[in-house]
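Problem: given the chain below (373 residues), write out its structure.
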Amino acid sequence: MDVVHVISSFQLGGAEKVAIDIAKFSKKNNISCSIASVFGRDDAFSESLKSDLNESGITWFELSSKKSVFSFAQASFSLALFIKRNNIRIVHCHSDIPDFIVSLAIRILKILFRFDIKVVRTIHNTELWSKRRFIPKVVESGFVDDHVVLISKAVESSYLELRSRCGYEPSKNRHLIYNGVNFQDDVDFSYLSKVNSLSLLFVGRFVYQKGVDVFIKALKELSCSLDRDSNVNVDFYGSGEDVDIILSAKLKNINLKVFPPDKNIVSKFKAYDFIVMPSRFEGLPLVAIEAASCKIPIIVADSPGLNETIPSNWPLIFDTDNFFQLSNLLKDILDGRFDKSLLGLELFEFSKSKFGVQKMIDSYCSIYESLLE
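Solution.
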């Protein structure tokens, strides 16, 4: 086995999807990968991901059974033992919790087994241990000039700030690799030309970062200006601690529905006019790129990472946290002030050369190959 990818859990998230895509597509470059999850999960969505990995012939395992205080120690030792027993040559960690586990595991390997392993890190977010002081110093002290992949310019700035805050020099081996999806030129978007109706989609975790509360406030504002003949439908796909904000919302003349995470959600994008992304911060959200690949326009907050997924002068953008601006955009859309087809095509053309999946895979494999020589 060449590479083990370490993720937080088998959950809805861009970091997890990127790790799984790399593991799948790296086979073509004769690089074998496995997936290690720090925390165990047994919900329907996680089971569907595991089933997909089984069908693809990719080894996966969970380093701890449940999320608890003891999970971190258990996961670190389990990862170190797996690496040693299988003679893994590269460990690739995705996001902060996996960074923490890997930083402990490589210390265990050196002290107990005198075993050195190459490390690749992908930084997936712009908020890096912002509420912690001691833990990030422990984590970052374990990494010295390892290969660090930064998925956006905003992420790069956050990484440099983190290293400075912890008192360490940034790695000399930094790479800017954008997340990627598959783009097909023959995508049909004739379904965008609907009359007297509006279908909106939110995809992601229902947490503070994703701005679910901002979206609900904007919808409440919008609902006050709608009449009974309005046909506005809003679907939320995801899960998380802020689900009650959605379920408790009382909206007049807006049909709101909530669905669990769906690993095949992209296949349903064509049923919607716009995808709404009110995130307060992001690394480089895959949903935005996936929407572009389907020629579906996105309504986005002007937040770090997220604003790198749209062309300059994109009209469907609002200030972060400003639900009034978002509400006004939705009103303008209902008034027919935007050509959805042209916007979808513009987003597609902007994204396809920048965020292609093969470009992403080739860049990662190039790093692996240099380390495996």
